[in-house]
Amino acid sequence: MSLTTHCTAFCAALLLATSMMAGDAVDEVRRAEVAFAKAFADRDAAKFFAFVADDATFLGGRTLTGKKAVVEGWSRFFEGPVAPFSWGPERVAVDASGTTGLSMGPVYDPDGKHAGSFTSTWVRQKDGAWKVLFDSGGPSPANLAETALPTEEGFVTADDGVKLHYRKTGNSPLVLIAPLGFILHDDFKQLADRATVITYDMRDRGRSPRVTDTASLTIQRDVQDLEAVRKHFNAEKFVPIGYSYLGMVVALYAIDHPERVTRIVQLGPIPIKSGTQYPKHLTNGYDDMESSPDDVKKWQEMRAAGMAEKSPREFCEAQEKVYRYLLVGRGVHAPRISLHCELETEWPVNVDKHFKTKFASIQALDVTKDQLKKITVPVLTIHGTKDRNAPYGGGREWALSLPNARLVTVDGAAHQNWADDPVTVFGSIREFLRGNWPLTAERVTGL
Question: pTM to 2 decimals?
Fold first, then answer.
């Protein structure tokens, strides 16, 4: 072997080793930030402050220089049984030497609302552990009153004349379009600092008018309506976001209109084939719901008395107080689920009729492997392990079946996974919109 060849091989090996070390260091910093945040959530002050370097500086309302000052300044945040805020790493970078890391991400209040952002500088210690050297807040998010972007609302007219209510926030060339706006918009408009966020209510749902032609309430029509919304806003290309059965809708749209889609986000999507049975560990039951016994009793009594027809709004309110526990993995998060009984379309007496027709069209679907192969754009599937409405196995199957997909697993989260863990869900979506796979995204190779 010549000296040149030997050097080339050695240099290549050195570059590979350096790259692998950098990758490992990024994961180490990510894990350190996660553990740091968890200690805060667990109210473990000793463990939390153990992550703070002796010469640390925390920048907040005032500058805290040195660990002693940080301990004194931050101890007040441990006084209550519930953490006053939460956070998690969205982006992590490490220098070439593998000794200094930067972690950035969102901060959320106790109600799961986006309240700010953070930036932390981590330094590797002599024993290999990572500690925080600098910590500071970031700019205010786009959903706070003082920095909120204006929201436009109105109606899109579908090709058959049906009106679809929409809301639009932001003015970025990057466009997100998400159906089910009456549920999603208030939470997802926080992404308006990165994209134009357009949400809309499907026909016969939310703030869209009720329809008399129930034959049009099919998943195929939902795909056509998504195209009508795109045309209305002249979006040449966009990122569709599909929650629940709409995870299927955005996939079907990408099959029909591959030239219009740049990326896809699925949140708790239904299985590719209706009725698919997954292994028990990939399917969550209903026996761990934490609904109030009094609320359950009242709802059952009203249902037995026929109140769904006699007093539809009051029955809706009673039912939603129970059903919102279906949507979260931890009962303490149920208040984060908004009730929508002011909307006549969402009264059980109406929405049950809507889904009777809609589910028939979903159950009749037969999406083939060849069709799925047509979806070549990056797809991010986010699924909770305690999803009672759409089994977690379905999310794994989507990520396994699509050519260019990754799965972010939200441990302990149920169907409305961002209510359980907004840090993971919105942090993952933000990084995905930047063109990168989120830190915890998994290439699924088997169920």
Answer: 0.87
Q: Say what the pLDDT of residue 417 is.
A: 98
| Residue 408 CA, distance from chain mean position | 9
Is the Cβ–Cβ distance between 378 and 263 less than 8 Å?
yes
Query: Residue 3: pLDDT above 90?
Result: no
Mean pLDDT of 86-100: 94
Q: Across the chain, what does the average pLDDT equal?
A: 92
Contact 288, 413 (CB under 8 A): no
Which has the closest alpha carbon to 85: 117, 60, 56? Answer: 117
Query: Quick check: helix, strand or coil at residue 285?
Result: coil
pLDDT in tens, 209-248: 999 888 999 999 999 999 999 999 999 999 999 999 999 9
Give kind and range of the element (H or E) at residue 100: strand 100-108
Other C-beta atoms lying within 10 Å of the C-beta of residue 97? 11
For residues 10 and 4, what is the distance between their CA atoms, to the nearest angstrom?
A: 10
Residues 423 and 37: their CA atoms lie apart, in Å, by 11
* Burial class of 29 by CB neighbour count within 10 A (0 to 12, 13 to 18, 19+): buried
- Domains of the chain and any CATH numbers: 3-137 (3.10.450.50), 175-447 (3.40.50.1820)
- What is the band of 143 on the pLDDT scale with cuts at 50, 70, 90? low
Q: Tell me: the pLDDT tens digits for 51-73?
A: 999 999 999 888 999 999 999 99
DSSP string for residues in 255-284:
HH-GGGBS-EEEESPPPSSTT----GGG--
Alpha-carbon distances of 447 from 325, 388, 395, 407, rounded to whole Å: 27, 18, 10, 12
SS (H, E, C) 32-98: HHHHHHHHHHCCCHHHHHHCEEEEEEEECCCEEECHHHHHHHHHHHHCCCCCCCEECCCEEEECCCC
Alpha helices in 163-218 (DSSP H): 181-188
The reported pLDDT for the residue numbered 60 is 85
The alpha carbons of the chain give a radius of gyration, in whole angstroms, of: 24
Structure tokens at 138: 């970031």
H helix or E strand, kind and range, residue 179: strand 175-179
pLDDT for 18? 43
The phi and psi torsions of 378 (rounded to 5 degrees) equal -65, 135
Lowest mean pLDDT among 284-298, 307-321, 414-428: 284-298
274-277 LR contacts (CB < 8 Å, sep 24+):
274/362, 274/363, 274/365, 275/363, 276/393, 276/394, 276/397
